[in-house]
Write a structure and sequence with these properties.
It is elongated, with a radius of gyration of 24 Å. A hairpin with a 2-residue loop joins β8 (131-139) and β9 (142-149). The strands form four sheets. The chain has an eight-stranded parallel beta barrel with strand order 1-2-3-12-13-14-15-16, surrounded by eight helices. The protein has a six-stranded mixed β-sheet with strand order 6-5-9-8-7-11, with helices on one face. The chain has 18 helices and 21 strands. The protein has 481 residues and is an alpha/beta fold. α1 (20-29) runs parallel beside α12 (318-333) and α5 (198-208) packs parallel to α7. It has three domains: 8-73 and 170-334, Alpha-Beta Barrel (TIM Barrel), CATH 3.20.20; 84-160, M1 Pyruvate Kinase, Domain 3; 353-478, Pyruvate Kinase, Chain: A, domain 1, CATH 3.40.1380.20.
């Protein structure tokens, strides 16, 4: 099951992709990570999908990552007596805490935290930004507004407040229950919605207690402003372009995406580009040319992963959507311009011994006839540093820890292989050579680069590099100890 591209594919599971055969087909088409969207489905349904993924992992012998995406607090209006109301541009409209059913001039907004944060001049967006209102006056239980973009507002439509940092925790009571359920289930990554500040991430990390890595979804203007601090406390990032394009001018999203991807790469932390990547394939077996260009742009930028949402969860062509993304990635990465763009955007960062080791590994691999860079790892840190270099040769991650290998499924260019624990560097080299041959990365005539840390099985000790033959007889002959 060797992939012929470096960028990873995240596929969301849902009603269209909940049985063994479909999920297996998604995996074989190219999915590396499966996303469980905790906004939809019961715990029992999510557990069933989790169990199927783990069965496929056992059947194929290849680590597969599972990402549980927490819903986050949902801000919604109440209900209307008539089910809906038409708001015309220039009309006055009030949001308040009165639980009575709404009329043409008002509706309940059962979120006192919003009123506490609002100021005159702020903008309220309803129904994914289709309706826009400007706050004229506000208090602890009301907001009087003027409609600046009209439309039909109906029961329980979502509300966005782009101009202020809301005094809301990123984790609702439902999220806390879902987080504990997902961690007990054994997921590898937790995606945290509604992140506004680094404290939101540290709260989730405290609750996870190391059982899953934390990925912060950047979908709020406040998160963009505080991104440097959020990145420091996150294990990974998702550029969630859906809400980001609602709360910010849509034309500002592409440059934000580019900045965030580059920052994540410099920090050696995986980044997913998500939302509407192949949206038309929910109903069509063929994507638009613009969608393919969007996927290609994320790959050219050096994103670690691209994601499918409704396309694979509820669409009519889930397997075809993954296959399309896979084919696009292979085509883009085979373009000579791809290497030019990736190498021109490489960030030089040499602060530690490990930084120097991985930079040397990449330079040796590119200057000589090297088949692969093989990394022995406990925590995955060295592998992520190698991936930051975006080398031209495959990265083979070797670890006895299945949890580490699963989390690395989200990291660019990695081929993750479980191995036995070793106590001596010579045996590490031998195992690396065998793995490179067994999985089709090299033959006995090739050489590989091996990185590891001595003493073994201690995270963060990468301090050794060796160029070795793939013929283990030569390894024993040149290193009898």
């Amino acid at each position: 099951m060797r992939r012929l591209r470096n960028v990873k594919i995240v596929a969301t599971l849902g009603p269209a992709s909940s049985d063994y055969d479909t999920i297996r087909a998604l995996f074989e088409a190219g999915a590396d990570v499966f996303r469980l969207n905790m906004s939809h489905g019961t715990h029992a349904e999510q557990k069933a999908r989790h169990d199927i993924i783990r069965q496929i992992e056992a059947d194929t012998g290849r680590p597969i990552a599972i990402l549980a995406d927490l819903q986050g607090p949902k801000l919604r209006v109440g209900t209307f007596a008539a089910g809906a109301a038409d708001l015309e541009e220039g009309a006055k409209f009030r949001f308040d805490l009165n639980p009575a059913e709404g009329e043409s001039h008002r509706v309940c907004l059962p979120h006192p935290e919003i009123f506490a944060a609002l100021e005159p001049g702020a903008t309220l967006l309803v129904n994914d930004g289709k309706i826009r209102l400007r706050v004229d006056d506000c208090g602890p239980d009301f907001a009087d507004c003027t409609v600046t973009t009209g439309g039909t507002i109906s029961n329980r439509k979502g509300v966005n407040v782009p101009d202020v940092v809301l005094p809301l925790a990123a984790l609702s009571d439902k999220d806390r229950a879902d987080l504990e359920f997902a961690c007990e289930l054994g997921v590898d990554w937790l995606a945290l919605s509604f992140v506004q500040r680094p404290e939101d991430v540290t709260e989730a990390r405290d609750l996870a207690r190391g059982r899953a890595a934390i990925l912060s979804k950047i979908e709020k203007p406040a998160a963009v402003k505080a991104f440097a601090e959020i990145l420091k406390v996150s294990d990974g990032i998702m550029v969630a372009r859906g809400d980001l394009g609602v709360e910010l001018p849509v034309h500002s999203v592409p440059p934000i995406q580019k900045r965030l991807v580059r920052a994540c790469r410099a920090a050696a932390k995986p980044v997913i580009v998500a939302t509407q990547m192949l949206e038309s394939m929910i109903e069509s077996p063929m994507p638009t040319r613009a969608e393919i260009s969007d996927v290609a742009t994320a790959i050219y930028e050096g994103a670690d992963a691209v994601m499918l949402s409704a396309e694979s969860a509820a669409g009519r062509y889930p397997v075809e959507a993954v296959a399309t993304m896979n084919a696009t990635a292979i085509s883009v990465e085979g373009d000579p311009t791809f290497r030019e763009v990736i190498e021109a955007s490489r960030t030089v960062k040499r602060q530690t011994v490990a930084d120097g080791i991985v930079a040397a590994a990449r330079e040796i691999a590119e200057a000589t006839d090297i088949a692969a860079i093989c990394c022995y790892t406990q925590s995955g840190g060295t592998v992520r540093l190698v991936a930051r270099e975006r080398p031209r040769v495959p990265i083979i991650a070797l670890s006895p820890l299945l949890t580490t290998l699963r989390r690395l499924c989200l990291t660019w260019g990695t081929h993750n292989i479980r191995c036995e624990e070793v106590e001596r560097f010579k045996m590490a080299v031998v195992n690396a050579a065998r793995s490179a041959r067994d999985f089709g990365f090299a033959d006995e005539t090739n050489q590989i680069v091996v990185t590891a840390g001595v003493p073994f099985n201690v995270p963060g000790t990468t301090n050794i590099l060796r160029v070795a033959p793939c013929d283990e007889r030569l390894i024993f002959r040149t290193d009898p100890e």
